[in-house]
């Protein structure tokens, strides 16, 4: 109970404890700017409510204010802590009253007075903080969940929708890009950005990161100029990066001096005595301050920080200064780098060379940068304390730096860490082997279940008159495969061929590469939306463009029905293409591949991860002609060599199949003539539906006055489903995405 009664006093004392022994350099005078109500969490909640009711102006007002309020409070907090640390140093040890403590009468009695001086200094600093940050400021402190929302940049998700709704595209793009930088796996935002890129009036300069760290931006620019061998500009930006780094480091360390985090323990049962409480809190603060090196080296959306971030500045600078003929600066930066890595062979050679060129007498007095010497000394002292606490009290500490000398770590702890690393490596290897065995068993069971499911589920109705199954999975020696004839008449095939030759662009869909898959042929293509737009403008027959739109929808429904899918298919990409043979070339028209994973034929595996289109579930090719030589479609085993089936193209024939590793496929070389077809990829995930398809549906409705059918629940826009947690709505989507145009 005594410890509990004493704890509030030490909370007051410990507010001032962090940074007392090794305070940060520099301080700002004057009173900090006031932070006005309301706090950031209330503004965030108000913005979310405004989003739910569709009040876009209010969303923007509250979310922008929330971002500013949080930043203002953090700046005020850091300012007060730096200011009080500065006053504490400049005014001496001090005493809470005008009366100084009595001088010791003998050497043996000096220690209690020294302790009182130490705690007197803490009381003064805590009093300064109380005056700078009155009790009312506690309402601006954010909870853990709210801080996480700001860390994930959630307000920008709301802002991009709100700005789009009021047609402020530049701000919508900036907000979307800012959110996406920190959330690169957010597929809806990726699609939003792709949509924005196609919109008129959107500039490349709109795609900015509004939360970019100044020191990181300057560092990136400096490295860029360094790579381009523009040494003078590299120096300017790298020096600016260091200036911003020190400012960010000072703020980061100041923000570490907060309340004690009980880390899941019940604070009511916390019974540490006086010095244990100080140790617990102070080591937590020091650990946070050491973590600033990682925080400042981290980039939003990246898993790992830049290794040796601060030292690398001086690595770039020493060579940039050398290239600029500034040998004194080159020597200074080389010596600064060697503070971190004194045994670096290359840097020592560089230093010796610079010194020889400048002259040993002139080079010897040049010292490393003073602020870095202070930084390194302070960091090593902090590490010693943290390693001691780890060794003595078992308080964990993971060193964020690779440059820490081994002698800083206690010998017993070094041996313990070595054993732990070896044990962890062994356990990790055993777990990895076990997981591989489990994955193999699961794959085998899944394949068995899949094979049974395929046998039962294939063979659904063809939906349209005149269609016939030419080959099923059994005849094609695989699973989830079918060849259907009769989708187009001869006249329709010729009309679509003429459309391709009139509307297609060389290398369309492949950044203008006229031979994207093989140098043996030229490649021309056109998307549905582009064809319809050209038809609207009278540059191609509108009926042909409409036929293109309709027949792709026909294939989608056919695939959905034949494979008896429980959920609707969505277009992932549609492309009408013609490949023309280049005489004398015999390379494959399209090498063997799998549509949703990366095929490793030698290892007989297919890795389902980017850059593969992992979201694609089914594929289809609708042929427009057969009057050419070569160009046959074929399936293979995973080895990409063993051909299991071959399909000869002809007008109105479609080959459809699941897009996974069960269906590796390729196209043989077109040796003579022109091969035309519509390539279609489908997804079961509506989040990956093709943007241009939405635009095409809107255009078809406008041109042909087709009626909308009611959207099924899974296709309704997010707002209509009443979701208000976060704006996953993608700009440009609307009810047209679900229309039936056939």
Describe the structure.
There is one protein chain. With 742 residues, this protein is an alpha+beta fold. The protein is built from 21 helices and 16 strands. It is elongated and about 105 Å long.
Tally of DSSP β-strands: 16
Termini, distance in Å? 79 Å
Average residue pLDDT: 81
**What is the count of DSSP helices, taking H or I runs of 4+ residues?**
21
Low-confidence parts: 1-30, 93-99, 452-456, 506-517, 707-742
Order of strands across the main sheet: 1-2-13-9-16-5-4-3
Rg result: 34 Å
Give the DSSP E fraction (strand runs of 2 or more residues): 5-15%
Per the principal axes of the C-alpha atoms, what is the gross shape? elongated
Percent helix range? 40-55%
Structural class: alpha+beta
Q: Please describe the biggest sheet, giving its number of strands, its sense, and whether it closes into a barrel.
A: 8 strands, antiparallel
Region (Disordered): 91-111, 707-742
Organism: Phrynocephalus forsythii
GO molecular function, one term: L-ascorbic acid binding
Signal peptide: 1-27
How would you summarize this macromolecular structure in one to three sentences?
With 742 residues, this protein is an alpha+beta fold. It contains 21 helices and 16 strands.
